[in-house]
């Protein structure tokens, strides 16, 4: 009798295990997900910008000295480059901001001026008017300093954040805070609080944990992202997402998912995308493994690495090459 009971229990446990596996599979397969016919939306990193080779690059290197031979006349983080990106087919443009000495925000990537411009020193130690006197194309070279094709062409082209938002009143932007200073988040909250809710819905801010936390506390209605918000969503999701449960930390935010991390997420890509859309969260896939969130999908060969039918956001440094593949 005991032997029969043991056999019966083994069969029962085996059946329950089979049912659990079937549930996990059916609950997370993308086969039944909707929306796979939608085209993905495209995010142009820094607008339409000069790109550079990434071999051996570190955070201290001057990327303006590593550009490829220019194929277009645009410089990153300028109004013409953003206009060109939107004209090419970008749905969202990413831009970088630096606080200025006179209490506003300049749209510029670097902590210092020495790499790209004819200025010297820390960007935030200058007023906006002083920054506008600089030539932001001064340092670009594709031949190790033999020629500088953009010198003299970038004078006065560093815009303020206010100028960008005014020039593009109905376009979507991803704003990058380039520090981990909470006061910068407080300052940005003061600036953004003047905008109507309809305009705020078109903006997302990401950056260091501290400024994003300060910004989120003051403006909970604003979509934000940092490494901290990313972890607070994805770590519990990886633990329990197989059930279909979406943690509250995944609501009304943005997730920049490295392409090599995506397959580890329950329901990736379509069921995962479906769940995040239901939570009012945007998903953008970036290139690589997460070590460099600037890596994008910049060629037709890169696009082939995306899952079939992917309909979320795509991060690209070459919107001019990628948009025609989807438009």
Automatic annotation (TrEMBL):
One Pfam family matching this protein: GDPD
InterPro entries found in the cross-reference section: GP_PDE_dom, PLC-like_Pdiesterase_TIM-brl
Domain of life: Bacteria
Gene3D superfamilies noted in UniProt: Phosphatidylinositol (PI) phosphodiesterase (3.20.20.190)
Domain GP-PDE: 60-326
Identification of the protein by name: Glycerophosphodiester phosphodiesterase
Organism: Brevibacillus ruminantium
